[in-house]
Amino acid sequence: MNLKTLESRLQTVLEWVPYGIHADIGADHAYLLGNLLDQNRIAKGIAIEKNREPFELALRNLQKFQDRAEARLGDGLTPLKAGEVDSISICGMGAGLMVKILQAHAEKVPDQVIVQPNDSAEPLRRWAMQNMFHVKQETLTVGFWHYPVLHFQRAPGEDPVYQGLNLEVALRFGPWLLRRKDPFLLDYVQKQKKRLQNLANVSNPRVQQDLERVEMALRMLQ
Questions:
Q1: Nearest CA to 113 among 133, 83, 97?
Q2: What percent of the chain has pLDDT over 90?
Q3: CA–CA separation, 171 vs 85, rounded Å?
Q4: What's the pLDDT band for 1 if we cut at 50, 70, 90?
Q5: Which of 14, 16, 19, 198 is most exposed, with minimal Cβ within 10 Å?
Q6: Residues whose CB is less than 8 angstroms from the CB of residue 121 and which lie 6 or more positions away in sequence, other chains included
Q7: What's the pLDDT tens digit per position in 66-79?
Q8: Distance between CA atoms of residues 138 and 142, nearest Å
Q9: Among 135, 212, 132, which residue's Cα sits nearest to residue 176?
Q10: What is the average pLDDT score of the chain?
Q11: 35 contacts 3 by C-beta, under 8 angstroms
Q12: What is the pLDDT of residues 191-218, one digit of tens each?
């Protein structure tokens, strides 16, 4: 088990996990945790998996790390105790499901949260803003499509990264991605504009609103 076995989206998550006790939620076979432990990037890893078969695979894959790793069978943050971990990662799910996981046990969410949703990260950015988390960093990684990866950090007050940006556009497309004029985001936004313009009912208020946000994002990126 080594870094080369990870897809680019998970390699990015690995690089952003801070040193300490880390839990991977929906860990599947625990390849991410295995790489983190193998490279001594974390002090201890906890794999959380709700399905029996991947849970048992995670157990086997983590055996060699002995008391530095464990796997727990359960849903979301349920198997964790409040304050037990320094950071968590949630990868390969829809953003809406990730928000439900984070909201279900808000008292167990640590100060560092790294997420890799398989769709728009907007619900996660809204969750962060409503729960006093700042967007520490975010990127788009190449895979089957462009996967967003975001690192949230608990912090008081308004997130300064949104200052000077149209809030709705920044929540939809990502404040850091807009600020650095990310080429992957530009490509995505251009495709979104074409898709929206091709819709038969472009006069629909919701479609029109989406198109306005896309065009505003394009102006910021070009």
A1: 133
A2: 86
A3: 28
A4: very low
A5: 198
A6: 95, 115, 138, 148, 150, 174
A7: 999 999 999 999 99
A8: 13
A9: 135
A10: 94
A11: yes
A12: 999 988 887 666 778 888 888 999 999 9
First-to-last alpha carbon distance for the chain, in angstroms, is 41
Taking the C-alpha atoms of residue 214 and residue 185, their distance in angstroms, rounded to an integer, is 11
- Tokens (6 digits) for 40: 């001594």
- Residue reference for tokens 């625990």: 30
- Quote the DSSP letter at residue 166: -
Q: Amino acid identity of 92?
A: G
| Sign of the alpha-carbon dihedral angle for 52, 55, 60, 63 | negative
* Amino acid code (one letter) for 83: G
Q: What is the pTM of this model?
A: 0.93
Domains defined for the chain, CATH in brackets: 3-158 (3.40.50.150)
